[in-house]
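Practice problem: predict the structure.
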Amino acid sequence: MGNICMLVGNGFTIDFSEKVGLNPSQPLSKFENEGISYSHFLPKLPAIREELFPLAKGEKNDYLAIEKFMGSPSYNWDKDCQLRRFLSLSYATLQLQLEHHNISQWHWTKWFREHRDELGMFVSFNYDLLLEKSLKVAGVRYYRTGSDEEPVGVPIVKPHGSIDFDIDSDHRSSERWEYTTALLDEGKVETVPKQEWLEPRFEADIIPPHKENYQRSLRWVKEGIATFKEAAGEFDTFIIVGHSYNEADRQEIDQYLENLHPGTRIEIVDPEPNKLLVAKINALGLELHRAGDQ
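Answer:
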């Protein structure tokens, strides 16, 4: 196993997407791209269409609208299920747009290719597959922990879910809309092939933006955390890319930092890192470096 672990947030996807006219922070605004349509799934999500989308018109960004929607007194598991399905399908739509663009010359793809033998693990908070695509193009073999993928290559821990995760692929697409699911624990998640990314998930294990991870008790999530803890002592470099250390995610980020050995080199790829993140790193006796823009 390599000695570099990288923690990836939404800023990683923004770095590439903004170059091709997409804004991954705006799922309700169709990622600010006129070529995107949700007509194939939005009518099946009435709470999203009739309650969440109108909220977005009065908020300065989509994530605030999602927070307001989740904070409503009428919010329940049915609406939560609809939200998680919307996020899985909208970000799958984003991923399909990203697939049209050549990623081989992106600076992170080049970096992965150059450091291929040093990569030990990734922790990705992103639903999309841009990290996975970049690693594949760079010739880095990987697998996602807690999934049905063969555990060969560099592990990727995705505690907030992924657009291609589901727990039950036996139900026909038309049947899945009929069920309200509330974080069923099947032990592992199944990976959904590309041709089915726009099909509804039976169980979309997706944590909404700025929401504390309420699926940490699921076995597939716990497997990823255990995989990290087992390997944490081997890492001499921990790189944080594009994560703001927002309040909802702090406890999760801290559990990764707290399992690193003292003296681990921490690189933050952010010209203005969160001050609380810097304070946490210093308090743990880790060696902080501000990498700046790569």
